[in-house]
């Protein structure tokens, strides 16, 4: 019978942080990653920076970012965390992360060009999330942590609130591995279309999943079945606008589109449906996933002209292009007359505007138009015209398991399980209720991963 | 037309990179991508020669095969690089050597065979296999005039083809960007080339031979390039000693030409052996099989040239000196005849690509942000 002190389920940032932290305390640590090796790491593969509190500027932070400000930003975006104490814990402990990460081999870099607005609050690891994972996996191997890929968990054996081991399926054979404590860091359920359909109906077929196809939520479902207390809106997800031509899964950063505030957005009926100039783009891009999810066919189109096509990050997929409004409408598969009318009305409402400044709320707005465009509204009148098809691109789901201040999973009666811990996206609903603060997913994963690993290991040592 | 396919494929991948930019911290290739929106053929040629094949981006990329985006920048740029090597080489029938390794190997053998054949034919056995110790000892075996004329012809031939290629690189990779020159850009590109600044994967080292970064490859490469420079200095010093101070070789062990020559020779042997050893173990996925063959031919020729040079020094007081010298000269002939048709050319285009990079990064740019 194989037995480990700590079994970590998952293979992303939170799981690695837990395994590394546990290994500092106990010797027998097993990490079970469900994906094959080349797909290891869950959604961490697509990350690029981490948000940390810090008192002073350094080589990589352009200025100080106090815990107070960090917490205020979090509250501002989420409208108040589900558990304020855990939010404070994450914000407070985040200040230790850069040193901890460096000590485990992580390299840093300056903020990417065009992301300077995050240079004070967030820290960039060299090469992005997959490079971060490679470093952690190499460190884990060097420290003697056992790693298994393609590890499909059949069941967690939990008796009277105490974890005994995991049942594993490898090929046709079943396997039982005993563990003295477990950390579940297996992500959310955003890649489980059937699960999403329970809440969204057939619309879920039109969602694009930006990250790993392996986040099917099986471990979350298992924990809930074993009596763990759910937290967060089961329908809730974080979604942005991505190109409708993106792959169903794992398109990552390159499918996102920054064109929206530069023109207008129409639905399949060729009509506008929301203020494209409501707030500066980094603060508002995350509402568009939900907005498009609510449109017929979960489809929309961003439309710009030759004046603005070069002003946003070049998209991966070539925009549709035409020399008249009608022709572009046809190219996009829309009713050309309705589409052209929408543009004519918009151009009439912006006729007096010529220049705009995208970096600020410039007040260059439409007149007498519903819905309005409150900023950066200039006519779309210089051919060629360009159109990009949009779909909701889901980043992560909010619902998870409830944990306490030691990262222990809590059951429906409010009592923690004896030796079951959770970290990362699977418990981020304790803090994030809606909205998102760039780089904070990794903050939660790292803080609670390290905490869960450490606590699980001391628990296992007894 | 493979060239069109490579160009189109490079273009496809670079557009995805430009929408991602996670690799920006690794090397100049990605910073050069970011100031472009479309990639002309000249841009692909430029970027392919700017790439140092450190492979950091390959291991950091979440879109490498089997992902459907199938991004593999080190490999596609290596393939584009070979296209440029052939395109800018001369004459056409020899430039094909970049795709047909047999031509390079054949050229090397023919050059070596001519040197050895002529020596056996023209040098009396009595001179070839005896001990020569007096000043001008080497010239007792091979006449000074033959050595100098042969050497100069080969050297200037290689130099001429390199320069022609360099000129074509410069004109064909000229972008729409304004490019004022600049002394600082020149200095910075020179130090980048000589110091192998971009064989560091943005800090932790090359991801070579596998995904664990290390600085060992950069050390091997430095030993190779500085070893070669040191031997070039030794040859130049010997020329000065001889033609300005009228001191004929062999020079004493503690003389400048012998010290530079020995340091360079040892460095070359260690450096080329290390690079070959690494190449044998390197990850096949991010490399182009065509490039690898070309690399081996160059490294082996260069390593053997250094080895025979050292053997000539070691055996210079024995009857084996003549044979060693002939072998050494044969390998030098092979090295220089293949210099415009093998991996040796990379230093020309990479140095120029670095200069272009330093120049264009100094222009006012409009970065389009996330």
What does this 3D model show about the protein?
The complex is a heterodimer of chains A (462) and B (370). Chain A is of the alpha/beta class. Chain A folds into two domains: 3-202 and 211-234 and 399-461, FAD/NAD(P)-binding domain (3-Layer(bba) Sandwich), CATH 3.50.50; 239-393, Alpha-Beta Complex (Flavocytochrome C3, Chain A, domain 1). Helices cover 27% and strands 22% of the residues of chain A. Chain A has twelve helices and 19 strands. Chain A has helices at residues 13-23, 67-78, 84-93, 97-103, 129-142, 193-200, 218-225, 281-284, 288-293, 325-331, 336-349, 440-461; strands spanning 3-9, 29-32, 49-51, 108-109, 122-125, 146-148, 152-159, 162-170, 173-184, 208-209, 230-231, 237-243, 264-267, 300-305, 320-322, 385-397, 400-401, 408-410, 416-422. In chain A, strands 1, 2, 6, 7, 8, 9, 18 and 19 form an eight-stranded mixed beta sheet that branches. In chain A, strands 10, 12, 13, 14, 15 and 16 form a six-stranded mixed beta sheet that branches. In chain A, strand 8 and strand 9 form a beta hairpin. Chain A is elongated, with a radius of gyration of 23 Å. In chain A, 54% of the residues are buried. Chain B is mostly helical and 370 residues long. Chain B has two domains: 2-87, no CATH class; 89-360, no CATH class. Chain B contains 16 helices and no strands. Chain B has helices at residues 2-20, 28-34, 41-50, 56-60, 73-88, 92-95, 101-122, 125-128, 137-141, 144-172, 183-194, 216-244, 256-281, 289-314, 321-337, 346-361. In chain B, helix 3 (41-50) crosses helix 16 (346-361) and helix 7 (101-122) packs antiparallel against helix 15 (321-337). Chain B is elongated, with a radius of gyration of 22 Å. Chain B starts with a helix and ends in a 9-residue tail after the last helix. The chains are: A alpha/beta (462), B mainly alpha (370). The interface between A and B is medium-sized, with 35 and 35 residues.
